[in-house]
Amino acid sequence: MDQKPKLTEKQYYVVFAFVTSLFMLWGIAITMGDGLNKHFQNVLGVTKSQSGLVQLSIFGAYFIMGIPAGLFMKKYGYKSGVLLGLALYALGAFLFVPAAESVSFGFFRIALFVLACGLATLETVAHPFIASLGSQKSSDQRVNFGQTFNGIGAVVGPLIVSTFIFSGDDNSQSAGMDKVKLVYIAIGCVITLVAIIFSFIKVDKNLTDPHVIATDTYAIAAEEKPSSKLIHQKHFVFAAVAQLFNVAAQGGTWAFFINYGHEVLGLSDAVATNYFSISMVLMMLGRIVGTALMRYVIAPHKLLTIFAGGSILMCVIIAQGLGWVSFTALLMLNFFFSIMFPTIFSLGLKDLGKHTEQGSSFIVMGVVGGAIFPYFMGKIANTDVAASYYLPIICYTVIFFFAFLYPKLNKNAA
Predict the structure, then answer these.
(1) Around Cβ 203, how many Cβ atoms within 10 Å?
(2) Transmembrane region positions (predicted)?
């Protein structure tokens, strides 16, 4: 009788714990960036469209750093890749000090870009790293376990913003800058400490190379190679486009969530940020429910079709500005787009054979959508934040048609 493979092995426990923590650390930083959108509007007087450039700094760093981080990892290994990511993360956090002193939005964006280069490096390294810590039959389980902690980080990030940045009665520029400065000094110190501790952790140099990991999701027999070039794989091309629009919608939705709570419901920034944290809990719930449904009830592309339709409906309700009814729809929007990134990713990589690794790089680069879209949503939000949520409907429509047409795009699909 075959035994189920363990989540990880005893010799990897310490390394596994540290790598899992990385998922939480970049989840915290990403959602804190969305909280900073509203804070910069308050203390620096930038418009909503200008504050959307925060996402350009963050997601632009992901787009630029993704491939170099992968090459660095390939040459120097997992441990060096993690240490590089943590170093950039800490450096970006400490750059918030001179940015606050100069009261410069441009300087803050530079600091965020450096910090996000660290996040992109950590994310590039952590997925194959955690997948390698044990049997390849359980590698998907380890990645999903790590993603759970990423979700926890996404909940914690807004709570940090609401507790330490939006707290207090003094909303002057100097007080606002001091709050940001102190929070990011603390973050920089924590990340530095994590890097120092991790530098003393012994990492097995014989771990599977990230470029030959075969997880249950993407494993394809060597002989099963597509006859045509990657660009001729219709399901992959559509997946890359869908992923760009998916991250675009996510970036815009999160960037103006706090504005919506403040302007439509009259909530304080701190309370609206707490609701943002609740929406992250709903996203975690959506992933849990979606994963269970895909495993036991419904094919992934069919569930993605349903969830994309649900997202379109939520956006229509949100755009009406109907008080708590619309705000509840805004919360539920996180539930519906919860499965989109991993599902689009996995559907796009199916049956690519020798092109799988290259295809993965192109789909990951779709995060650049999150760098561009918030600016245009912000242009509309400058006048009517509720109406700006009509714009993501375009994104979810693209995802809907990708999912609906998937069996025709990929003839091997069940």
Answers:
(1) 19
(2) 12-33, 53-73, 80-100, 106-126, 147-167, 182-201, 236-257, 277-296, 303-323, 329-349, 361-377, 389-406
